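pinging the channel bc i need a second pair of eyes. not urgent but kinda urgent?? the chain im working w is below, pasted from the shared doc
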Amino acid sequence: MKQEKPLRVRKLLHRLYPLVHHSLLTFRFWLRFFWLVGCYWLGGGGYFIFAEYPRIERLSLADPLFRQQQEDVARSYERMKQGLPLLPLIFYQYYTGEEDSLFSLSARFNLPYETIATLNGIESSLSPLRNRRLLVPNQAGLFLPDKPRNEIERIMLSWRKPEGSPIEVEGRVLYFLPQERFHSVERAFFLQILFVFPLRQGTLSSSYGNRISPITGQPHFHSGIDLAAPRGSPVYAARDGKVIEKGIDPILGSYLIIQHTGNYQTVYGHLDSILIQLNQSVDSGMIVGTVGMTGATTGPHLHFEVRQKGRPVDPERLLPKRIEPKP
């Protein structure tokens, strides 16, 4: 659908603003001005089909675009504090170096790390950024996509609603949520600390996914991970929550399920004993039971499962460290 003219004009002005601010009297400015205008009209007045985002070369105030970005960010914080209208949203581009990290760039650009992460589709704090092109905005907030491409975006869209006018950024439709920050669940997932390890020591004896059942010898889907440990070893709550179910199952044996914020649940199976009550609130790291051999099992171990909205997900992706498989 063709955009309304005021929106198209505003989009053009957003692109020209940083160039005008620093280079009004230079030949380079006028050359780029006519180039941008030409691209604007060639694109039908809706999109910049050839234009590039202004590139920050150095993270130094000697770089005029970096200085402009810093001034805009400072102004945006002040305007938000005073309840004034926001500045026009502007994107710059920056190519990372060998030593750059998300957190060092967050500090240098004076922006929350989640602002840079959500604009660039960065899934977690462990995602490599070396020698990568990033877009950097001139104000803080979250960028919410219309369609998720990774797990953190799916988590964000599970309870956030797109608001405001859509922005097309390099083929993606995003919604800008000014001054918004990650929710505690989003932050924990992004930092890879959403759940703590349910055992002090354990060996991965079976992974999540398709496998051959050690009981029947037939292929089946394993909805969690199995952690071999001595019988009677303490089992810890992987996160704060509330016990919503406990009982005995022919497969899981003695088991319990804990409900967590963010529509997450954790399942603990083959327990020798259960040390908490139904509807009891638990803290992260609290002992909830002990490792056993109840149900369908060939040896003492903990079956640990994570569900989101009732569907199993790979627990290893949500735990703070990878575990080595059994030799």
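so Residues 211 and 217 are 9 Å apart (CA to CA). and The longest strand covers residues 264-274. — does that match what u expected or am i reading it wrong
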